[in-house]
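Customer ticket, subject: "Can you confirm the structure for Protein-glutamine gamma-glutamyltransferase 2-like protein?"

Message body: Hello, I'm evaluating your service for our small team and ran a test protein. I'd like someone to confirm that this is what the system normally returns, since I don't have a reference to compare against.
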Amino acid sequence: MSPGLEVSLSINGVPTVGESIPMSVTVTNQSSNPRVLMEYLNAQLKEYNSGPQKSFWKTHREVHIQPHEVLTLKHTIPPSDYESVVADDDIVNLAVVIKDVRTEERVLDTKDFNISSPRITIEIEGGDSIQMKKEHTVQVSFTNNFTKTLSGAVLTVEGSGLLKGKQEV
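Agent reply: Thanks for trying us out. I re-ran your input and got the following:
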């Protein structure tokens, strides 16, 4: 039997809400023959302790690879493709299948990841220092990185012994 294919999928950086998700698929042709391959890549949500759901993003293309060549195929999921389906605690399952068109040999790799929430900024008014048993005012903010206007969003701030109740805006 001749040497086959190897595939490796990687997420580039830490995916953050509102930003594109860059990824790379590395394909290695271990044989002495050139190959024509089909690359199938998709992303779907996966709730904790369950299987993947319907895909929210997918792509496919034909790839030509030379003997003993290593190819790196780059892809990006734009925020507009995931922002309406991904919730804060969802896991994203990314899967790639590489198929040799002639031999129908298939190789697969998958990655599971979370998309980080937007960064929340807390600024103390009047300086960076605080004193015990003295009231202070802080400004809590975040930037909407989505491509759409948020409506019905709630920012909740609470702190044990720091606030009088829970603050919602």
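A couple of notes from the result: The chain has a mean pLDDT of 86. The CA atoms of residues 9 and 40 lie 12 Å apart. Feel free to reply with more questions.
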